[in-house]
Amino acid sequence: MIITIHSDRMPTSIAKHFPPREDDVIVNQENYTAPPTKPLRILAATACIGYGFTEIALNRALSTGIDFIGADAGSMDPGPFYLGAGKPYVSPEAIERDLKLLLKAARQHDIPLIIGSAGGSGGTPHLQLTRDIVECIIREERLHAKLAVIGSEPPRELITQRFAENRIHGLWPALPIDEQTITNSERIVAMMGAEPLQQALRLGANVILAGRCSDSAIYAAIPTMLGYDPALAWHLGKTIECGATIASPKTGQDCIIGTLGADYFTVEPGHPEKCCTVTKVAAHTMYENPSPYEFVEPSGIINTKLCTYEAIDDRTVKVAGTTFEKAPIYTVKLEGAALAGWRAVMFAGVRDPILIANIKSFTQQIHERTFAEVEALGADASSYTLTVRRYGLDAVLGEAEPLTDKMPHEIGLMLDVVAHTEQLAEAILAKARYIAMHTEFEGRLCTAGNLAMPFSPSDIPVGPAYRFSVWHAMELNDPLEIFPIEIFDLGNKEVMR
């Protein structure tokens, strides 16, 4: 565990109740057994920082009394590029808009603000981007904050050591890895649980920027410190992790209010014109989850099989009955991205009914003729991949598509090349595009091109392409051991909090 403090410790309204740890005893919810004295009210601002929320919902929620604000800021849903390239998948301008509103609200109300998976993927460059934005907002808005920045890129030496000790285990659908996989990965992040967030609060932070982080941990950290039922705390976190996804009507992202009691929790929208329903709240337990009843967090397994869901009014749902089983071994998920090559793509339309009727053999010809042309370029099959996607026919499901006998009147054709170098990717795509444009097919009547190009130039160099190289669980000796915490005292203490 590495802790760097860039200011005097000045505990906040939450952190003052939890003195810093004096040793390396593992922190978990069993250390905090004091019964809660009142319901805890939590604001989940949005599904992802940068996706937005309405100021109506934010202000209404704050007017009802909120104990802390949380927001997820990342996901691996957009694929490995953003992790590998160190870039966000929403614009810095959108991130700044959301953070400005939340920072001002949190400091004005003197409540903690916890941001997880900062910058999209939670790696070092993502954290730095978000920290720069936060510091700019604090200066411009004349705020004062104790900022915690929690890293989530474990040392490669430690990952390699754990791999050698057989303490890294694959998660479906991960491929087997070796030491070279670990070494060659552009970036590997670990998904922290609640404990690093809790430690940051103990060190006096009132604003936390966490690297890659469990979505649910953002909302479970403070409740489990205060002695609330960990089963309900984690289940509430899971329920509100995606903001207004559990609310109707779904007209974009927005705020959700979670209220945690001793033996229940409730959820309601921040916006007065939205409502939560039993169906949506219950269904969210299955979101991104292979089991309808269980979801796994670093510290244990949350089970919802015995849960009850009740609509207590026309916009609020009450949940009770969740159980929690502590994990025998504390593990965190590792996510790694490695460079796969360089990508170039092309889009075109096909509307010739004769070509559409022969689309399968036509696609095969594109592959075969491109392979022959690539050899003439001095490359071989191992140096590239060519994928032909046929939108409107089977581009989404591929070979699993059940409706291939239903021929469409139009097909969107995408040629996707990934090669060892940027120049080779562009050269192969140019060959494949020419072949698709002019290849003969049975019954062909035209003597010109087969494709309708939507713009010029037709070929688009995308840049580096990444693949997920690590998708594994790693055992930890201590929940804090790979998550360094830095504390910064920012802004003017004499102005707004």
What are the defining features of this structure?
497 residues; alpha+beta; Alpha-Beta Plaits; 11-stranded mixed β-sheet; 6-stranded antiparallel β-sheet; 13 helices; 28% helix; 26% strand; AtuA_N; Acyclic terpene utilisation N-terminal domain-containing protein
Tell me what the structure shows:
With 497 residues, the chain is an alpha+beta fold. It has 2 domains: 3-152 and 191-330 and 476-491, no CATH class; 339-466, 2-Layer Sandwich (Alpha-Beta Plaits). Helix content is 28%, strand content 26%. The protein is built from 13 helices and 22 strands. The protein has helices spanning 55-63, 81-85, 92-108, 124-140, 156-164, 179-184, 195-202, 215-225, 230-240, 278-283, 353-357, 359-376, 422-438; strands spanning 3-5, 40-44, 68-72, 113-116, 144-150, 168-170, 187-190, 207-210, 247-248, 256-260, 265-269, 275-276, 294-297, 300-303, 308-311, 317-320, 323-326, 331-350, 384-391, 411-419, 459-475, 485-491. The strands form 4 sheets. An 11-stranded mixed sheet has the order 1-22-5-8-4-3-2-10-11-16-15, sandwiched between helices. Strands 6, 7, 18, 19, 20 and 21 form a 6-stranded antiparallel sheet that branches. Helix 3 (92-108) crosses helix 4 (124-140), helix 8 (215-225) runs antiparallel to helix 9 (230-240) and helix 12 crosses helix 13. 44% of the residues are buried.
